[in-house]
Write a structure and sequence with these properties.
15 strands; Alpha-Beta Plaits; about 30% strand; alpha+beta; globular; five-stranded antiparallel beta sheet
């Protein structure tokens, strides 16, 4: 078992150790969590400038890092013909499943003007980490590539009030999210904290089941 205090002290300068010892227990616990987190593979949200998310994804994949860039169909005119092509659904965003330290080195490899950066959680002062369960649900919905999918970068409080349900049947079977109504259609909303959310296509009420409070507390 890892000694959290030893990890914490070895990961920062001595002066920082003295400073943190004078701070609240909450600060200390958050810092320990950040150090432990950096040692394990997690889903991190990366901001990529100038719409280079696919190039960054390609390089990460070449280095053996699992990635995900949500895609969507878009109509474009090519050589006088209207065709459908796959393009990133959200500009400048790439998800990577790796350790914090490895991604930190990857970002640094671009030099001072790196186009890649962590998206930070201002409250914890750590890079945003997407829970694996929510990320898997998000990818399952996004991977259907249905043209009726809706991506939201801002989620209203009203949408968050939706009842938590689990899909029982169909291509979305197994995912958990909020039941919401958008564009006059009943959908499942899967939110990735601090980044974005996706609303599925229409779902029938008979294809979902309510998630009990005890289960929601575990998630």
């Amino acid at each position: 078992m890892l000694n959290a205090d030893l990890l914490l002290d070895s990961a920062r300068p001595f002066s920082d150790t003295l400073t943190c010892d004078k701070q609240s227990q909450e600060c200390r616990e958050q810092t320990i969590a950040g150090v432990l987190e950096s040692c394990h593979n997690r889903w991190y949200a990366l901001r990529v400038s100038y719409s280079r998310e696919l190039k960054v994804q390609e390089r990460l994949v070449s280095e053996g890092v699992r990635t995900f860039v949500p895609m969507m169909w878009k109509k474009k005119e090519i050589d006088g013909k209207i065709v459908k092509v796959l393009v990133p659904a959200v500009n400048n965003l790439c998800f990577a499943f790796s350790t914090r330290e490895r991604l930190k080195d990857f970002i640094a490899s671009y030099g001072e003007k790196s186009p890649v950066h962590f998206i930070w959680n201002r409250a914890t002062r750590n890079p945003i980490v997407v829970p694996e369960r929510q990320m898997n649900d998000f990818m399952q919905v996004a991977s259907t590539l249905d043209e009726d999918l809706i991506y939201l970068t801002e989620i209203s409080a009203k949408l968050r009030e939706g009842q938590t349900v689990r899909v029982k049947n169909g291509p979305l079977a197994g995912i958990t999210g909020k039941i919401v109504r958008i564009r006059k259609s009943r959908r499942i909303l899967v939110e990735l904290p601090g980044t974005l959310a996706i609303a599925s296509t229409y779902v029938k009420m008979e294809d979902v089941e309510v998630v009990e409070k005890e289960e929601k507390d575990i998630m």
